[in-house]
Amino acid sequence: MEGFCLAFQHVQHSTLSILFLLLLLQFDAIALQLNCRSVLGAGFAGLSVVWHLLKQSPKELQMRIDIYDEVGIGGGASGVSGGLLHPYSPKVKLLWEGAQCWKESMKLLRVAEEASVSKDCRTGESAEDMKAFVAHKRGILRPATDMKNMIKLNDNVKTCLPSCRVETLNDEEAQSLLPGVCLPFNTAFYMPEALNINSQHYLQALFQGCKNLVKESSTLESGHKQLSLHKRSVHRLSDFEGEYDAVIICLGAKVNMLPEISGRLPLRTCRGVIAHLELPDDMIGYPESGPSILSDAWISVQGPRSLKVGSTWEWKSINSLPNVSTDEATKALLELLPKASTIYPGIKDWVFTGARAGLRAMPPLTTLGSLPLLGCINDVIGRNHTCRYWLFGGLGSRGLLYHAWLGNLMAQAVLSCNEEVIPSELTSWKATEPKI
Ligand SMILES: Cc1cc2nc3c(=O)[nH]c(=O)nc-3n(C[C@H](O)[C@H](O)[C@H](O)COP(=O)(O)OP(=O)(O)OC[C@H]3O[C@@H](n4cnc5c(N)ncnc54)[C@H](O)[C@@H]3O)c2cc1C
């Protein structure tokens, strides 16, 4: 009898333990499920959201972030972009919330620079070299191209930011920065703090920064964070139903290809080609601190013997392939080189080495400019969903400027499940019917 009681107690004890274990597992599963986020797209928008989600989530929160991208880091427009970064319009007018956007971009750039320095694989170089791996701090020169344009530019520089100054230069001053530069109206506007970023290096380094945050979270006594990149195509949003509590859509110009979204966003697409040029060894290289140039065509300086010249604007194209055919490259060169040589005649000595292209997602023009589209889109895609779908798109031709601050706001909105933390200027597109 005693033996039976002991055996019974033993069974009871193990059953309780199993039940307790199951309960724990269930709690763990619920905790994980409650904090599963998926970010679609690994361009400027996607990686900025990931970094801010990891940075802002409470330490004790368990969180899993899955990134889905069919190509990998920087597979879309971000990876090919000219990398020019400043808070002004082509007429040097401060853009909507330009100060905030500039400040946050600088912060994220520092994160990437620090991560690139910390990368194990990049040893043997000085910290400064590794920072240049992400960004070139050589400023941008904007020449006045006609009289009307000069009056406008002169007016606009009065409201420039102290953190990204715009100086008015005469011909002599411009020549000392960039010998041989040609100013049609003897005046140029110089932004000494403006940058050009190596987009691919920046994105790789920012992703490294995200992985570093995850690593830090596992060494602290806090909720564990997980981050995975899945190189996979996304075909429909419904595939994510049930597994995630939030899906953040950062698919750039290809967002319209999802069946649930197609035709519901006020976005237009525009393909741009960029030509890559190099200088032969027997020629004197571009000056060490010579600025990039912003004019009818721009020149983004990658190094003393490497330039990018951009960009074409092919509206309504849906071709997002980065590869450029010989025909397309020839057409682009015929358009870009005459424009570039008006300001920098020395370009004739440079040799074409290849071209890349990307598809921009262009938002509608408002009285405040072309503002990206953000917000929770469950009401846009209809039906009842167990998960929240968020859109971070329409970065147009200024993704570098917008991605950091808006990624920060998007992360706040997702973590608090509250769209109202996003300024209404960025969500008001939902109130108007798209004119497709
Ligand atoms: C030629 C050109 C030059 C530019 N120059 C500048 C510049 O100098 N400065 C500047 O600020 N901006 C520039 N831009 C604009 C800038 O590149 C964009 O604003 C920015 O890249 C948009 O970022 P994104 O993350 O929204 O989209 P993307 O960078 O396009 O990222 C979307 C990601 O989603 C992935 N994806 C898409 N569809 C799917 C799918 N179905 N399944 C899985 N993954 C998918 C893609 O592979 C891609 O990695 C330029 C753009 C172009 C085209």
Automatic annotation (TrEMBL):
InterPro entries: FAD-dep_OxRdtase, FAD/NAD-bd_sf
Any single Pfam family the record assigns to this protein: DAO
Domain of life: Eukaryota
Extent of the signal sequence: 1-31
UniProt keywords, alphabetically: Signal
Domain FAD dependent oxidoreductase, residue spans: 39-412
Keyword Protein biosynthesis: no
Classification via PANTHER family: FAD-DEPENDENT OXIDOREDUCTASE FAMILY PROTEIN (PTHR13847:SF261), SARCOSINE DEHYDROGENASE-RELATED (PTHR13847)
Annotated protein name in UniProt: FAD dependent oxidoreductase domain-containing protein
Biological source species: Glycine max (Soybean)
Gene from which the chain derives: LOC100780699
